[in-house]
């Protein structure tokens, strides 16, 4: 996509601090980091959401994020991937964040608002989703 900042980085139109590059994947330092070593891993195929990306462009995302975690020496870290503005995605191109968490005040801060569930409803949902996964 012509106006996508990540596509421009892939094409070399915008400079980046590249950490890894292959024919399908690019990793670079985040220019607005939450902590030292915060990096992004992107597929070179443009797609806004994970479901828009062909599987062959997804195979390196987590292995590269793992290598970044090792390279930074992070003992604790978050691997984050958001889909859609409502899910806090700011750039409309799939990307995975590797965010070191060296101290409580650095890195990603999150809330995890769990919801009570009824086992009968959970069983129904399980059956529905398990059937769809077989399609």
TrEMBL record:
It catalyses: adenosine 5'-phosphoramidate + H2O = NH4(+) + AMP. Gene3D superfamilies: HIT-like. SUPFAM superfamilies: HIT-like (SSF54197). The keyword Nucleotide-binding applies. Residues 5-108 form the HIT domain. GO terms for molecular function: hydrolase activity; nucleotide binding. It comes from the Eukaryota. Its cofactor is Mg(2+). GO terms for biological process: nucleotide metabolic process. InterPro entries: HINT (IPR039384), Histidine_triad_CS (IPR019808), Histidine_triad_HIT (IPR001310), HIT-like (IPR011146), HIT-like_sf (IPR036265). A motif (Histidine triad motif) lies at residues 93-97. The active site is at 95 (tele-amp-histidine intermediate). Keywords: Hydrolase, Magnesium, Nucleotide-binding. CDD domains: HINT_subgroup. Belongs to the HINT family. This is Adenosine 5'-monophosphoramidase HNT1.
